[in-house]
């Protein structure tokens, strides 16, 4: 089995590299298709042809874009993410602080939402068609249907503006005590938990119900296994594959897709950094963010696959 | 307000205060209030209230957080590259200019002791003595020469390279005297030096992220796209600053900005959308500050291509724009009706005798008939990039539809708008930020060779007058010439300026000292050193 997992990880790593290269080329072509370049964007209304020419020269943007891209790619191989066009700071430095913020938010959300979602999903499956299950289903469908900016804005209005319990925007730079931390993160984490849990609850409920309907579970029931043992020992390991996949997908969203929550709470995360980068056509920064998202995604799905293999006797 | 006047709002408070500052007498104010329908008895209590607010003396201490509306990783502390309000605010708090503009639009000395000339071509700038940079280096003539000269270097990427190009000679005469020679006489130099981009940096600076200036606050932190912190400059050469510390962030989402102010997380929220005013007005502890500075969104019809090459079409459009409705419904009253030229009522040289063209669909229809455009469809390019352009386009489109002219409003994304549509499409919207002098506006927007000649207006007479007025040191004669040039633009150019847009900043009512400025909202972005906290 060890051999199997090692080869899977190696194969995944190889795929990851190829994917990353393909992704960065795709991102490059998409960026190249956008109107304007960093010089024209930075000059904005003041972009007269001479001014653009001068700035391009000063920023070394006068080489063809593809050469600049290939140079960046060569730099990445040596561990150098390049220098941002927009403000001349090393990309690694720009990303570092933002990535830590995003990982903190994602990590905290995951720690809260995954156990919560799994507990709710599995209990709903066990108590299928009871009042509990129905209420939960209605609540989840309700939450899925409300866009996250609505949840976030309502939360701000209630907790920050009317009740004055929490700050309306997250000042992450001023966290000194655990209390500050809780106040700054409470609303973003709750909003994100609500958003990503719904999907996980639905998926885990469906997966567990499906295995509960299989003949071998019926067999276990006939043998006289208790309800808890039936679900946790017999059904869950087989349902774990689809569940961890749903979890991985939901968590990958936390890495790059939380732009709305970052905007509403003015949270300096990496999604906003990438949007900024796109709006200033900052190629090294866009590329570096894209690569990070790509690897994050692959890491999560690979982990999900490994867990699925480990948990499933038939795959072992 | 607590005195029970129902139709009185915080914005009216601001209006009265602004009037007092302009030097309005009690009689003027009462007249104003009658015009607004406020009863006499109520009027005098309000007057007392506003006068009290104005007379208070600043207190030292305290720290605030203030939020602007734009930020990105491209944030910079290099004054030459400053492009967003956030950059302007930061540059104003860390650096100083040679001159600034006061609330009446006149030049006041800041780092300069005097800026003088006898022929408007060779200017002598004398610097104040005893001014030091944050790193302890004293301010000298070399710093000024370096700061101004770098705008001429294309590699700097200066936003004001065009304006700076007229400065051809710089000479450090002695330690505190600089001589600036212009290519041709320009009486406006003291006002030009008040532009935010002409902040004075230390000689030889290459890394601007340190923010080493002479300004009221010393940079403690600067993270592009996140925040900046400035702490009081203890050896500042002016009175103030009053605050111990100011943190400046930008909350791009307007709702979030308003909420942060309402919940007390920030003390100043810049640029409030009139839509949010209902939420804020009348709230305990929140004050509003309105300034009409000359920012405008204009409809540009190019004179060098169809349909703008027919004068009747342009004249028709000028009569088709319902200016009052645009001010009332699009800007929710936070604007002043415009008269198709760029010099706003906030400017000393504004021509009050030039009346806006009345809304007259019948006349417009007759003119369109003459131009032969009725029954055709004319594309109009609009974008969020130009403030309120889409809403304005809708208003004009509805008026056009009523008389049988189809305006095909094409909404295009803000991203890349200035590069791809502005100045290019036959009929499109533009947005022009306030500029301190008519000469800058004219040479930027209406001279035959102007880089941003939005309607491709060409007039030899206009160019000649512009050059002549530029070198005149006689204010009265200049005022008269500029008045005539405003009429020429309104009658002959293809730019329609329906309204000058007001800017509204909201603050905690504990924050005092915020005044309107002709250079933009937040006191021309320089509020940091003037505001103070009332405990």
Automatic annotation (TrEMBL), chain B:
It comes from the Bacteria. It holds the Pfam family SBP_bac_5. The keyword NADP does not apply. Coiled coil: none annotated. Residues 109-448 form the Solute-binding protein family domain. Belongs to the bacterial solute-binding protein 5 family. It is found in: Periplasm. It comes from Bradyrhizobium aeschynomenes. This is ABC transporter substrate-binding protein. The keyword Signal applies. Keywords: Signal, Transport.
């Amino acid at each position: 089995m060890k051999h199997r997992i090692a080869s899977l990880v190696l194969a995944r790593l190889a795929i990851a590299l190829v994917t990353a290269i393909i992704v960065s080329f795709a991102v490059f072509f998409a960026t190249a298709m956008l109107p304007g370049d960093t010089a024209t964007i930075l000059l904005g209304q003041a972009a007269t042809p001479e001014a653009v020419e001068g700035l391009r020269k000063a920023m070394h943007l006068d080489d063809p874009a593809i050469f600049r891209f290939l140079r960046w790619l060569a730099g990445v191989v040596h561990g150098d993410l390049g220098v941002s066009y927009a403000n001349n700071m090393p990309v690694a430095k720009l990303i570092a602080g933002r990535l830590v913020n995003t990982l903190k938010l994602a990590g905290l959300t995951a720690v809260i939402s995954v156990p919560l979602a799994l507990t709710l999903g599995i209990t709903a499956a066990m108590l299928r068609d009871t009042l509990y299950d129905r209420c939960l289903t209605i609540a989840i469908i309700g939450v899925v249907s409300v866009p996250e900016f609505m949840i976030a804005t309502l939360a701000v209005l209630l907790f920050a503006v009317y009740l004055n319990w929490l700050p309306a925007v997250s000042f992450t730079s001023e966290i000194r005590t655990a209390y500050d931390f809780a106040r700054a993160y409470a609303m973003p984490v709750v909003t994100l938990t609500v958003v990503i849990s719904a999907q996980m609850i639905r998926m885990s409920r469906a997966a567990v119900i499906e295995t509960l309907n299989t003949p071998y579970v019926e067999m276990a029931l006939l043998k006289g296994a208790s309800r808890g043992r039936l679900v946790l020992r017999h059904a869950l390991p087989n349902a774990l594959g689809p569940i961890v996949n749903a979890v991985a997908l939901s968590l990958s969203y936390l890495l790059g897709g939380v732009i709305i929550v970052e905007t509403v709470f003015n949270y300096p995360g990496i999604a906003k950094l990438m949007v900024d980068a796109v709006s200033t056509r900052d190629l090294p920064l866009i590329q570096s963010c894209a690569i990070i998202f790509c690897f994050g995604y692959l890491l999560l799905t690979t982990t999900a696959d490994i867990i699925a293999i480990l948990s499933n006797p038939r795959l072992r | 307000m607590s005195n029970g006047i129902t139709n009185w709002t915080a914005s009216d408070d601001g209006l009265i205060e602004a009037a007092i500052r302009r030097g309005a007498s009690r009689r003027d104010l009462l007249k104003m209030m009658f015009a607004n329908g406020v009863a006499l008895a109520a009027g005098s209590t309000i007057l007392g209230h506003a006068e009290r607010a104005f007379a208070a003396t600043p207190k030292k201490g305290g720290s605030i957080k203030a939020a602007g509306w734009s930020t990105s990783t491209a944030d910079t502390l290099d004054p030459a590259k400053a492009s967003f309000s956030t950059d302007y605010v930061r540059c104003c708090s860390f650096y100083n200019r040679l001159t600034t503009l006061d609330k009446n639009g006149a030049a006041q000395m800041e780092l300069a002791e005097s800026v003088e000339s006898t022929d408007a071509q060779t200017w002598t700038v004398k610097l104040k003595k005893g001014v030091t940079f944050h790193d302890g280096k004293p301010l000298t003539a070399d710093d000024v020469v370096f700061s101004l000269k770098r705008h001429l270097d294309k590699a700097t990427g200066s936003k004001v390279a065009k304006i700076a190009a007229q400065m051809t000679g710089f000479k450090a005469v002695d330690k505190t005297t600089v001589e600036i020679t212009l290519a041709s006489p320009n009486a406006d130099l003291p006002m030009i030096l008040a532009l935010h981009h002409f902040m004075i940096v230390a000689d030889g600076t290459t890394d601007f992220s340190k923010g080493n200036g002479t300004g009221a606050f010393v940079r403690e932190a600067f993270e592009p796209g996140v925040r900046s912190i400035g702490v009081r400059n203890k050896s500042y050469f002016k009175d103030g600053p009053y605050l111990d510390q100011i943190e400046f962030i930008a909350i791009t989402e307007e709702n979030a900005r308003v909420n942060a102010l309402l919940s007390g997380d920030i003390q100043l929220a810049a640029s409030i959308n009139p839509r949010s005013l209902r939420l804020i007005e009348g709230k305990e502890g929140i004050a509003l500050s309105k300034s009409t500075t000359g920012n405008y969104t204009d409809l540009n019809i190019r004179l060098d291509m169809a349909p703008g090459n027919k004068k009747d079409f342009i004249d028709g459009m000028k009569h088709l724009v319902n200016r009052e409705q645009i001010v009332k419904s699009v800007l929710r009253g936070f604007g002043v009706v415009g008269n198709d030229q760029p010099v706003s009522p906030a400017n000393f040289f504004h021509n009050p005798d030039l009346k806006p063209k009345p809304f007259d669909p019948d006349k417009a229809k007759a003119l369109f008939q003459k131009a032969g455009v009725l029954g055709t469809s004319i594309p109009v390019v609009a974008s969020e990039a130009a403030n309120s352009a889409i809403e304005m386009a809708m208003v004009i489109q509805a008026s056009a539809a009523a008389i049988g002219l189809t305006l095909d409003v094409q909404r295009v994304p803000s991203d890349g708008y200035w590069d791809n549509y502005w100045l290019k499409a036959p009929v499109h919207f533009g947005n022009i930020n306030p500029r301190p002098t008519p000469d800058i506006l004219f040479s930027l927007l209406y001279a035959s060779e102007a880089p941003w000649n939005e309607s491709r207006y060409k007039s030899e007479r206009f160019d000649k007058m512009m050059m002549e007025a530029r070198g005149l040191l006689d204010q009265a004669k200049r005022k008269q010439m500029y008045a005539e040039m405003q009429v020429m633009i309104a009658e002959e150019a293809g730019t329609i300026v329906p309204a000058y847009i007001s800017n509204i900043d909201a603050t905690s009512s504990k924050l005092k000292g915020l005044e309107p400025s002709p250079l933009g909202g937040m006191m021309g972005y320089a509020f940091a050193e003037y505001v103070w906290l009332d405990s």
